[in-house]
Structure formats: C-alpha cells, structure tokens
Amino acid sequence: MNPETAPAQPVANSPEPVPLKKSTTRPAGVLRKKAAVDSGNEIWFLTLSDLLLLLVIFFVLLFGLSWQQQNQSRPVPVASGPDPLSPRISSTPPAETLAPPPLSSLEKDLSEFLDAAAPAGVTLERRGPAMVLTFPERIVFDTGEARLKPEADPVLAEVGHLVQQRPELLVEVHGHTDDRPIRTTRYPSNWELSADRATQVARALIVRGAAPQQVSVKGFGEYRALAPNDTETNRLKNRRVEIHFSFPDRNS
Fold it and tell me: pTM surpassing 0.90?
C-alpha cells in the first residue's frame, strides 16, 4: 500500500474544543456616559444647596436688621418712682424765676416806651414772630424828603437804647410811600425815596447804640400799601417807616 494514499488516522489523545462564553463587558463609551450623568446630578445638587444656604443667610440678616430697628425705635422705659439714693432736685424752677420769652419782654418794654415817650400816632403791633413799630411820615420826615426831623431824635434814641440792650435782636427798617410819583434828581422813583428813608432811620439807630450787624433796611415804595391810595387820609397811612424787631430762630 502506498503510504502516500493511506487515510489519516485519528489521533487518540487529541483534546476536544472547549466552547467560549460571551463576554459581558460593556463598551467603554457606555461607562463614560453613565459617569458623566452621575457627575451632572452631583453638580446640580451642590448648586441647589449653595442657593438654599444663601437664602438662609439673607433671611437671617433681614431678621437681624428689623430687630435692631425695632429696638432703636422703642422708647426707653423710665422708672416712675424716685431713686432713693439720688438727691431730690427739682427739674423745674419756681414760677417766679422763669424768664419771660424774649419777644414778650421786648413787647413790654416797647409798650412802656410808647406810653411814656412816643409821640401820638406811633403804633406797636405783633406780626407773627416780630414786633412792628410804625412811625407815620409826619413824625420823622417832611413830604418828599429823607432828612430826619429834629423832633424824631429822642424817639429814635430810646429805640436804639432798647436794641443795644439786646445784642441778639434783629432789626429791619422798612420804608413805604404812597402812589404819587416822584421824579427828582435824587429820587427817580418812590423806591429810592423809601430806601433812603429806611437807611436814615437805621443810621440813627446805629449812632444811638444798635450794632450795625443787627440792622438791615428795605425800601418798598408804594407797593405795600396799608390802605387804597384814593384819599389823602389813606395816603398819609401809607407814607410810613416800620421798624421790625425779631429774634433768630433757635431751631434753624
């Protein structure tokens, strides 16, 4: 028998093939996707917790501020009974030692001045926070003139003395005229005449004791009339000089 054509004999000790199990290992892409989803959930939770913490801090600060404002606006309780260890000192002086208000004291002195030395026709009135002493034109000036009459000197000297005794007193001198026009070289209109009259009275008060910083002047011409300029009597009322006395506002 030709050895080249003889059939191959099975090998007795040849091992049988072992079946392979399918691997359950997942692809790497799936694992990375799941890890990314888990990481996103964790970041969302941290953001929410930070927001809640900030809200808690905000409400705590808001509560603290409102509590502080309530304590500041709450009145401090005062004990009703006297302290037995403190000396008993009266906080209110006796009625006879209380000083009268400055304006009331000035009103009293000006009223006494009117009764004793002021010529007839000089008036005193209270206008709000000021006392107003009014001099008719015939007492201090001639018509159309701003030169003080000699008989006005004693009156203005007494007023200057009253101002000198009160350094805190403020004095405004107002000049007024009627509506009859005046056109002279010195006084082109009633404004100049009224301002010059107020200036002359203010100068007389300063010479007789008033401090210059206490005194000011205003000229109103015919624009602040007391009565209609329709009769001679009313025009006489409007031609006047007013001295306004007041004290500085302590609250301003």
Answer: no
